[in-house]
Amino acid sequence: MDLTQLGIQFGIILVVFAITMFVALYSTFAERKVAAYMQDRPGPNRAGYGGIFQPLADGLKMFTKEDFIPDTKNKFLFILGPGLFIVTALMTSAVIPWGQTMHFFDRAVILQATDIDVAILFIFGMVSFGVYGIMIGGWASDNKFSLLGAVRASSQMISYEVAMGLSIIAVIMLTGTLSLRNIAEQQHGFLDWSWTWHGHQLCYPSWIVFKQPLAFLIFLVCAFAETNRTPFDLPECEAELVGGYHTEYSSMKLGFYLFAEYINMFISSTVIAVIFFGGYNYPGMDWVNNTLTSAMGNIGANLAVLVGVGVLFAKIVFFIFFYMWVRWTVPRFRYDQLMNLGWKILIPLSILNIVLTGGAILLTK
């Protein structure tokens, strides 16, 4: 890799990092506005026009608040916990394909920080590693409520990672790849004419959600549990645990924990959009690409790529809104109900879906 390509790659990483932080920052604002709308009240409206600067005011408040560290024997681990949690949350965005390839001065620019063949495994690894940040912080707080919240979080995330992984196995069987870019490319456009049945060509929607609706449903439920969102926010259940695993945290250490949850919500929405809803693909994209390219040449081709990026972010915004909608609509589960749903319902359904997918693949060959 030459220096120019290395610089382009570094620039893409910075842009992805900036977009992730910006979306997570204003997701906090959107959360409060959605809650206010559902509860028939105005919400934050003092900082800037319509409260548009409220996230910046919240961030400034977190930075300037007194940083309190309890009298614990594990001060290093107490500080390490939130840092580890937010770093692992940010690293998951490295393998997300944000769009097709753009061209500048005869140089191809892939809109992805890094394209690896095992991107799905990388995301699962980072998600699994992130639970250590919660566990370390809760244990090092030397507080029974924090420790109980950390134990709940680790048990919950480990339980639902099993069902989430099994649901993705069916998708991998269908696509034959672990690369998110390859999965997105196989959902090109909206209609797939490559299916055959006894020599007859069939047309079928190319988005995986139409081929794997059960896998999508299981993955979506598990995503709520993995991100500790309502109705699965048992690790920070204020009615029982004061604040859960981050009860003893203040200032930006608390901000890291809260901010990382919104980053995880953004990344999980992106992964759902890429794997199940075509990512940057949309109906009629070939017509748009051909029209813009023929009208403006290379500039038009790049504009067509940006349209795809905009479509991807529209899908992401919808799923972020869905997270917020569910939070202010569905009541919290009991912990035994949470565990029963994961082990007794979602895992058997995931295994059943794998068997059905294998049978369907054999029948269509």
Q: Can you give a write-up of this model?
A:
- By secondary structure, the chain is mainly alpha-helical.
- The chain has one domain (69-99, 116-364).
- The protein has helices spanning 3-38, 54-64, 75-91, 119-140, 144-175, 180-185, 208-211, 213-226, 238-241, 251-276, 285-296, 298-327, 335-364; strands at residues 101-104, 107-110, 191-197, 200-205.
- The strands form two sheets. A two-stranded antiparallel ribbon has the order 1-2. A two-stranded antiparallel ribbon has the order 3-4.
- A hairpin with a 2-residue loop joins β3 (191-197) and β4 (200-205).
- α3 (75-91) packs parallel to α10, α5 (144-175) runs antiparallel to α8 (213-226) and α5 (144-175) runs parallel beside α13.
- The protein is globular and about 70 Å long.
Q: Globular, elongated, flat, extended or rod-shaped: what is the shape?
A: globular
Beta-strand content: 5-15%
Whole-angstrom Rg: 22 Å
Structural class, please? mainly alpha
Tally of separate helices? 13
Largest sheet: 2 strands, antiparallel
In the sheet with the most strands, the strands line up as 1-2
Number of separate domains: 1
The overall pLDDT, averaged over residues, is: 87
Tell me the number of strands: 4
Low-pLDDT residue intervals, each spanning 5 or more residues: none
Q: What is the N-to-C succession of helices and strands?
A: HHHEEHHHEEHHHHHHH
- Between the first and last Cα atoms, what is the distance in angstroms? 41 Å
Percentage of helical residues? 55-70%
Oligomer: single chain
Give me the secondary-structure topology.
Elements: H1 3-38, H2 54-64, H3 75-91, E1 101-104, E2 107-110, H4 119-140, H5 144-175, H6 180-185, E3 191-197, E4 200-205, H7 208-211, H8 213-226, H9 238-241, H10 251-276, H11 285-296, H12 298-327, H13 335-364
Antiparallel strand pairs: 1-2, 3-4
Helix pairs in contact: 1-10, 1-12, 2-10, 3-4, 3-10, 4-5, 5-8, 5-13, 8-10, 8-13, 10-12, 11-12
